[in-house]
């Protein structure tokens, strides 16, 4: 059914809210921002056409409060809600409540979100669709169960414990030996309960030197399913991605075709529409890929796919929600560039502990081949309640070397954040590391090279700037007026 969208409430904050609002501006669609008390002066609030206060700082009082968000949409006369990523983006109850309120949900069907939100069920569906899955055991209750399975399947340590309802690296614990197993199960159970309200666990074989590859899929409500090729998301810190690129330097053309069409087959099987991502783990040793999960939302790293294809994925999501057909077929998609993205987080690059406060100085990278998506501005506060992501910096080039070169310029010359700490020194060290440049890395890259990466840090401070100015003044004082003055 076709319905026109004139006003969208963006049920998010920071980078995701700003990203959605920019596309809405392009499409001449009005936007409504929601904000918590600490976010009253946030960038997404200024950017929107209207803004409505929904509660105090803790997410449960504001950005996770479904009733307040839906009420805000109805009060402001919004036609639709876009959830961005994080918060309620993959909550089937929220998606259903949006539709029950007579609003348009910009995302996949609630029943599909629910289906894919449970890792155990998602794995079974993938198996039925003939998609390879990692050997594992579900609904784990005891260490004895795990050890029995390992013996029967001839699985050796390490193994990975995961929250069945999980995502974003929460409730995931790697186990190296039998002695660690009991404590690890309790830790994963506790984390899962706290993060998702569900302590159901599954255990899988741990893929050593694995690489994380995901396929971006877009589908309309008429059964047209198209992949927009893959992204490599292997560089991670505590199971959280921090650098992504497209295409993947890991795959040859035949593997690329196989993994992309496998993703399309699965999404067609579950009746998916809107934008979504199928995540795989790739075993470099055996050249095998295994299904991990389906992300039933817009991904943080969707921008690299937009850079190589020239498409606006948020715009397509809105069109699909309005009931429009995809304006292209698979044969029309021809990536012609290499793109890379880094996540600039407000955190100490040495300890990864969060860094909060006011941004006293902010310079966003510019120039050829650079795209930046920022959720902050100079003078903005970074509150302690939310995700630490403040800016996404993307680069594009004719090939991978070109994209790395542009990213080096963006991070070393273009980006400047003062007042809080960021992980920018770590990001720069990674993209300059010989192994990264060669494309030789796994999900353990940071932990394997951490000391070396630390030693590469070149951190500028305000003292450096003051020294530079002092040297300049001293030179002019000593030499007198110059010819160019």
From TrEMBL:
Residues 4-451 form the Biotin carboxylation domain. Signal peptide: none annotated. Residues 123-322 form the ATP-grasp domain. Keywords: ATP-binding, Biotin, Ligase, Nucleotide-binding, Pyruvate. One of its GO terms (molecular function) is metal ion binding. SUPFAM superfamilies: Glutathione synthetase ATP-binding domain-like, PreATP-grasp domain, Rudiment single hybrid motif. The keyword Ligase applies. Its EC number is 6.3.4.14. This is biotin carboxylase. It comes from Thermoanaerobacter kivui.
């Amino acid at each position: 059914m076709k319905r026109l969208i004139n006003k969208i409430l963006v049920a998010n904050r920071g980078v995701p809210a700003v990203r959605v609002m920019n596309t809405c501006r392009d499409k001449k669609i009005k936007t409504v921002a929601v904000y918590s008390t600490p976010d009253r002066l946030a960038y997404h609030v200024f950017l929107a056409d209207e803004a409505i206060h929904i509660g105090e700082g803790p997410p449960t009082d504001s950005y996770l409060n479904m009733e307040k968000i839906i009420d805000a949409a109805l009060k402001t006369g919004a036609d639709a809600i876009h959830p961005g990523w994080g918060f309620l983006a993959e909550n089937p109850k929220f998606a259903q409540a949006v539709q029950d309120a007579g609003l348009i949900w910009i995302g996949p069907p609630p029943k599909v979100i629910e289906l894919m939100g449970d890792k155990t069920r998602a794995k079974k569906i993938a198996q039925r669709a003939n998609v390879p899955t990692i050997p594992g055991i579900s609904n784990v209750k005891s260490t004895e169960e795990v050890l029995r399975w390992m013996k029967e399947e001839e699985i050796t340590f390490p193994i990975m414990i995961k929250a069945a309802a999980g995502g974003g690296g929460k409730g995931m614990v790697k186990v190296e030996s039998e002695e660690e197993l009991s404590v690890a199960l309790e830790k994963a159970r506790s984390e899962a309960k706290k993060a998702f309200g569900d302590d159901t666990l599954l255990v899988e074989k741990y893929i050593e030197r694995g690489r994380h590859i995901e396929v971006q899929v877009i589908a309309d409500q008429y059964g047209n399913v198209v992949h927009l090729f893959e992204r490599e998301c292997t560089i991670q810190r505590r199971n959280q991605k921090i650098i992504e690129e497209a295409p993947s330097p890991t795959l040859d053309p035949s593997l690329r075709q196989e993994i992309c069409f496998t993703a399309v087959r699965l999404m067609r099987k579950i009746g998916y529409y809107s934008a979504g991502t199928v995540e795989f783990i790739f075993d470099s040793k055996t050249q095998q890929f295994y299904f991990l999960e389906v992300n039933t939302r817009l991904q943080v790293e969707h921008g690299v796919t937009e850079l190589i294809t020239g498409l606006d994925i948020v715009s397509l999501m809105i069109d699909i929600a309005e009931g429009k057909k995809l304006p292209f077929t698979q044969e029309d998609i021809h990536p012609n560039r290499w793109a890379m993205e880094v996540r600039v987080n407000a955190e100490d690059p040495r300890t990864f502990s969060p860094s909060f406060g006011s941004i006293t100085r902010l310079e966003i990278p510019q120039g050829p081949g650079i795209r930046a998506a920022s959720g902050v501005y100079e003078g903005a506060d970074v509150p302690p309640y939310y995700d630490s992501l403040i800016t996404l910096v993307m680069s594009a080039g004719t090939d991978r070397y070109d994209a790395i070169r542009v990213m080096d310029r963006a991070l070393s010359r273009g980006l400047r954040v003062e007042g809080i700490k960021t992980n920018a020194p770590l990001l720069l060290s990674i993209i300059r590391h010989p192994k990264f440049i060669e494309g030789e890395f796994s999900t353990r890259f940071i932990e394997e090279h951490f000391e070396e990466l630390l030693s590469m840090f070149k951190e500028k401070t305000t003292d450096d700037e003051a020294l530079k100015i002092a040297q300049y003044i001293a030179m002019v004082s000593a030499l007198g007026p110059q010819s160019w003055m």
